[in-house]
Amino acid sequence: MRFFSVDNLPPNDISKFEGQRLAVTGTVREEPSTKFMPNNLYQQRLIVDVESVKMKGGNVPTSGAIILTAYNSDGVFEPARIGDKVSAEGNVKLLTNYNNPGQIDGVTRMKSDGITARMSAGKGGIEIESVDGNLWTKFLRLVAAIRQHYRESMAGVMSSEDAAAIFAMLFGGYAGLNPELVEDFQTTGIVHILSVSGSHMTLLAAATAYLCLLLKFPRSATLALGIFVIGTYTLLSGVLPQVIRSALMGILVFTATALEVKAIGARLLSLTALTMLIVKPLLIFDISFQLSFSATAGLMYIANDLRSLMYRLPRWISYPAAMTLSAQIASLPIIIWYFNQVSLSSVLSNIFVMPFLEFVIVGGLLGGIIALIIPFIGKLIFVGEALIFGISAELNRLFANLPFSAIQMPTLGFAAGFFYYLTIIFRRAEILILLIIALIFNFKPSGDLEVNFIDVGQGDCAVVMTPHRKCLIFDTGGVREKVFDIGERVVVPYLKHEGVREVECIFLTHGHEDHAGGAGAVIKKLPVREIITAGEPKEEYAAVFGISENSLNNLRAGKRGEVFNIDGVEVDIIFAPNVGTGNEISNVYKIRYGAVTFLITGDLIIENENEILREGIDVSSTVLKVGHHGSKTSSSMEFLQAVNPKCAVISVGYGNNFGHPRAEVLENLERCGAKIFRTDIDGLIKFRTDGKKLTVSKFNDDSTID
């Protein structure tokens, strides 16, 4: 009942005005952020608690919060503080995920914090009205000022990348971080140190406990001081929901340790989790909650047993190793589900790198305080921090580049995850046997062909898995102006989720970024045997991929009439114009498995459709990937009648600015009797066939259609 009361939004929530252009008034909730975008524009981002929207009948009281953004070319925005009033006009859009298996559900996470919509301010920008605010607002502004003090103190004595990394370690946030640094930390399993997590809280509590031990404080005073330190750090970190969750878990571990009673810690873990879920039921779907809870449980229930097994090792090795392994063991199915990677180098990094980084955190917090009193000493401390962090980062990079530093793992099924936890809890051989059986069934090839049209926003991407799990990719998605790397953030995670370790072939319809822009990340992350393209020059593809032309020896233009037979699946290039540019040069591919066929048309234009019909090319297919995202420049009635599809897939981005798909295209498809699927509505669309029967399932709908 509590869950549904939160999940069902009230009628006046800002998300209920989706698609409308409105003037919104509200209050700034969090410290605003400004960053330089890859499209050479500056972005200002505000979280605004909406109070009202202006409509024809007047102002309408409204609830919920929005992400409000504005853009300009000089980076100068009207100053905004927490608690100030904000007014802006724009189109209200829902928050959206890329709806594919294994993708982190950011929409539900933000919904748990009351954020349900987004808006980009128009030419009028964002109007700010300065408000004095109450005592709490003034306190939050003070916290924001302290955080800014840390930023400025570090920026003056170290590189921007080091300053961004150390600030992230102190207070959270990925702004300005070097992507290679983040990848190295992910590989070695210590990426959590780059955001405020339970480990930060435990570190501060441990430092406090050690100080209290030296001063011979009583246990009650140690407990009170530890909770005070964690609480103060939580306030300095912005009192954000994810920080509060980490603080609660940190307090829990510290309390259980201080009281030296495991049973009390176990009860507190249950009580803490239940309390958090009663307050915010949607946290059950939040990755940080899942990982914090499972890792904390591992520390409580598994760490001592592991330490006892390592009694021959020195304490400085056995303790961090046991802590690392216990947290990983307890959260393994969750880590594999989201990241499809298990770090084998995490023990090394936790033993040899984490102590330095922990020193950086404690020293950085103290350095900021000292810089307020004696700026020169504070700067010296931050110089030392930069040196220590640099050494730590290089050492971690060394571990990340070791052979088998991390291994890729396909996602565990529900049954395997269930028996995994039963095995940990009861530690019985018969449950382990059930786990092994579940894993065998989970990873056994189905023997069917799968064609997966994945949600890449305003772009195209179809991932084909042959009967023996060989992978073919038809277009790779991408976003214009390189604002978001679809390949790295969407396509590669999906491939890893499906257990793909190698790509047999990438078939590109043409070189536009929304079809080929994601290929660069796929090529960098996974071995690709061959890349078949349209007739554009190789250097154009190299530019779109962001890869040197010399390293694309496996790339070539496809020729009309070529047939590829891979694991019993036939791919025909039925059309490959070599004259024209852009959409005019789109290749058309036909995938055949038994009696079932799929037609991949890219951005095929009507003129080329007519040419195909004049030449008598057989385009009849069971499933049609509709040309050009449902634009009126494609999909003539004559062409659709020739294809005569049972199903039609439109790969299109939610709320796109092009008006795709067009109403006339949808009408033509309905007149042809095709069942229409759309990635902006359905998310990932999975077709499965044995060559005779065809079933389709949608990510946003559990039902399966025959």
How many β strands by DSSP? 26
Largest sheet: 9 strands, mixed
Rounded mean pLDDT is 87
Rg (CA only): 28 Å
SS-derived structural category: alpha+beta
Binned strand content: 15-25%
Q: Distance between termini?
A: 35 Å
Poorly predicted spans: none
**Proportion of residues in helical segments:** 40-55%
Count of helical regions: 25
Q: Shape from CA axes?
A: globular
Q: What is the spatial order of strands in the main beta sheet?
A: 16-15-14-13-12-11-24-25-26
How would you characterize the overall build of this protein?
By secondary structure, the chain is α+β, with helices and mostly antiparallel strands. Helices cover 45% and strands 20% of the residues. It is built from 25 helices and 26 strands. The strands form four sheets. A nine-stranded mixed beta sheet has the order 16-15-14-13-12-11-24-25-26. β13 (471-476), α18 and β14 form a beta-alpha-beta unit. α3 (135-155) packs antiparallel against α4 and α5 (179-187) crosses α15. The longest helix has 26 residues, at 375-400. It is globular and about 90 Å long. The model has no long low-confidence stretch (mean pLDDT 87).
